[in-house]
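This section describes the prediction task in plain terms. A model, or a person checking by hand, is given the sequence of a single protein chain and must write out its three-dimensional structure as a string of tokens. No templates, partner chains or ligands are provided. The sample shown here is typical of the held-out split.
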Amino acid sequence: MSQLKYWIWLASLSGVGTAAATALLRHFGTPENVFSAPPADYKSVEGLKMSDISALRNKSLDLAFKTLASCSEIGCRILTRQDAEYPDRLRNIFDPPVVLYVLGKLPAIDEEPTVAIVGTRLCTPYGAKSAENIAFRLVSRGLTVVTGLAKGVDSAAARGAIRAGGPIIGVVGSGLDIVYPPGNESLFEDVVSNGAIISEYPPGSAARPVHFPARNRIISGISLGVLVIEAPKKSGALITAARALEEGRDVFALPGNIDAKNNEGSNLLLREGAIPILSAEDIIGEYADMFPQKIMRSGAGEKSPGGSERADLPSVPTKDKRVDKPDQGAGYPDKKEIDKNHEVEYIDLNKIPDQLSGDERLVAEVIGSGQKHVDEIIGESGLPSPQALATLTMLEIKGYVYRDGTKYKLQQPPT
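The expected answer:
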């Protein structure tokens, strides 16, 4: 407790960011030493600005004591960078939070296969259902889901993880005593019951726009990978994905309707090299060997949130409901190969590769040996528009389909 008040003081100083706090701790060793140092000593800290030095003149601990009292009242714990429970994954990013406020039971993050699911607040029913089903499947198989608990994709992912029994970690941009968005009270309670909600902001802190980009670095920082579902070009989800790439995390994206604004950002991520997914299996396969004691390899007997046989994306009638993960060598050519201009050979129905199955084979059969407009493909396949367009996007990424405007034609993938 004697040191904790100094950690809170340093974290709460107005105008002193996490990078400046890191420089101060590196120079002085402890927050108490930072607090006790005379103002003249701050000038020798590399990277410190005059505004930081001015803010450090505030030696009042009143706010720290008030924060401690508030934490006791709502039952939240405080983790500092020196605590063993503070995740190494987060500690090792460029600008880790000075302190974390925790409500609920925080999993041992460094020992867990954690995957964040993020996306737009204004998601379609398809996007919400996909997020919920994928989160359900990930948790059912032993992974931990991380979410920002915003409206839309975040809340849908939280519901899926909760239905699977957790664990789940919510990361918020406000104090833990403030539910944002309003109306999510029951969801917040369920998350705390099945995992934890964390924040770098003390109780009483309102949800401000500037807090959310900062929150996003925590989401990616504690995760092995980030899945983006339905993100426009200007989206907080893309900020999270960018931070994930900076921090060396995996970035996954669910292909979406190429004509929808909601999917412009997530489809662009695929174009730039994100890992495309058609089901939770594509994520599970990335981490199964890293966490053999945590992740169940077999999904036998699993049920989806709605009680139907396992299906990550919203179920529709097709000739073959299976969605097999393609061979990595032929199925996911790297970005440079996708972007190159190749003289390709168009192929007919009899030359469709055997590895295509499920929706991909169905769409390929609809296209056949000619050229077809996207509306014809949607109508003749019988698939919902978002699912048909997602399948076309995947076929184009893999090199099996060539798009000319709104028309598609089969082609032989480059070798």
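For orientation: The chain has three domains: 1-73, 109-287, 328-410.
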